[in-house]
Amino acid sequence: MKLSRNRADSWLLEAGWARAGQVAEQDNRVVMMNEHFYPLRVHFEDTDCTGVVYHANYLKFMERARSEWIDSLGIGADWRESAGVHFLVHSLRIQFMQPARLHDRIEVVSRILSVRAASIIFDQCLRLDSMPDKILCRAEIKIACVDKDMLPRAIPEAPILESIRRSLS
């Protein structure tokens, strides 16, 4: 992947991330790289018996962040339900680097890597709010667009793709 950038923080590059608003070219197509930030705090219910966040809860945090981002674009669950459009996790790849602990303030940073006819690929990481260069977990998640019968369908241009494009510009 070739990044076009003015200046990038080393931790973002080491993690394979570009800075907000940058564009990369991959396989002769434009890949979008804007960010959405979702802060949260680790509660007792999020941890296991060792006092660290239970591994499955990282996926819950990422789901909340993606949902909040999509809702903020005006294409929330109510609209999608009325339009017969649903988004499901198709596949994911996740890497755990360091644990989050009870009372940590963390941030989920989400980025749309690419949009295809019936899917969106997100790149998400969790990092400590107090140390943004300390990445705790990172995942690439492919979301598929399906109809009410759970069959693949194209992502509607209006308002979904239009809203996504506006958020990325």
Automatic annotation (TrEMBL):
<dbReference type="InterPro" id="IPR008272">
    <property type="entry name" value="HB-CoA_thioesterase_AS"/>
</dbReference>
<keyword id="KW-0378">Hydrolase</keyword>
<dbReference type="InterPro" id="IPR050563">
    <property type="entry name" value="4-hydroxybenzoyl-CoA_TE"/>
</dbReference>
<dbReference type="InterPro" id="IPR006684">
    <property type="entry name" value="YbgC/YbaW"/>
</dbReference>
<comment type="similarity">
    <text>Belongs to the 4-hydroxybenzoyl-CoA thioesterase family.</text>
</comment>
<dbReference type="GO" id="GO:0047617">
    <property type="term" value="F:fatty acyl-CoA hydrolase activity"/>
</dbReference>
<dbReference type="InterPro" id="IPR029069">
    <property type="entry name" value="HotDog_dom_sf"/>
</dbReference>
<dbReference type="Pfam" id="PF13279">
    <property type="entry name" value="4HBT_2"/>
</dbReference>
<protein>
    <submittedName>
        <fullName>Acyl-CoA thioester hydrolase YbgC</fullName>
    </submittedName>
</protein>
